[in-house]
Write a structure and sequence with these properties.
By secondary structure, this protein is an alpha+beta fold. It contains three helices and ten strands, in the order E-E-E-E-E-E-E-H-E-E-E-H-H. Helix 2 packs antiparallel against helix 3. Belongs to the Nudix hydrolase family. NudK subfamily.
């Protein structure tokens, strides 16, 4: 299927091997038979948590992001460790970053946030039945948590206050979930 659009890898090399990301450079054959090079970031994937408190408010974070030199509003999220189940990662990240645990977890969707230059995928989960606890931030991790309504999140997206792609998409999903327009009946990545 889609053979007329596919590129075929001929050769490749890892040109950067960092602690967090890797950069791959491949030579490919294009659909018309010509050759080209593709450079892309290899990323192990991550999880995103959409935490809804019992009062209907949404738990979010504010965190400084060095590449863009500013503080962003974001949903809790984190990198999946090698071999780690995404749902296990989501539970760990929610607890570490916010101190909260959740009794009800639902898979929302998988997104690919930078398809032109990265193989990164984000597994999004909805978390309900939240219980407060003590956070356990990673060394060198600094963030603060706050709550907002779904309407707040959507307004902040519209105003450009929220620009982080996982938080924009998560906010749109929350609007559909909370209104009852979309249900979460699909299986998650570890349940497929």
């Amino acid at each position: 299927m889609d053979h007329h659009l596919r590129e075929t890898r001929l050769a490749g090399e890892l040109v950067f091997d960092g602690d967090f990301i890797k950069v791959q450079k491949d030579t490919v054959t294009l659909p018309d038979g010509s050759q080209s090079e593709r450079e892309f970031i290899r990323h192990p994937g991550a999880v995103v948590i959409l935490p809804i408190l019992d009062d209907g408010s949404i738990l979010i974070e504010r965190q400084y992001r060095y590449p863009l030199d500013r503080v962003f509003y974001e949903f809790p999220a984190g990198k999946i460790d090698p071999g780690e189940d995404p749902l296990v990662c989501a539970k760990r990240e929610l607890r570490e970053e916010t101190g909260y645990t959740a009794s009800d977890w639902r898979f929302v969707c998988t997104i690919h946030n930078a398809i032109a230059y990265s193989d990164e995928h984000l597994e999004i989960y909805l978390a309900r039945g939240l219980v407060a606890g003590e956070s356990a931030l990673d060394e060198g991790e600094f963030l603060e948590t706050m709550t907002a309504s779904v309407d707040d999140l959507l307004r902040w997206v519209r105003e450009g206050k929220i620009t982080d792609v996982k938080t924009v998409i998560g906010s749109f999903w929350l609007e559909k979930i909370v209104s009852g327009s979309w249900s979460l009946d699909q299986a998650g990545p570890s349940e497929k």
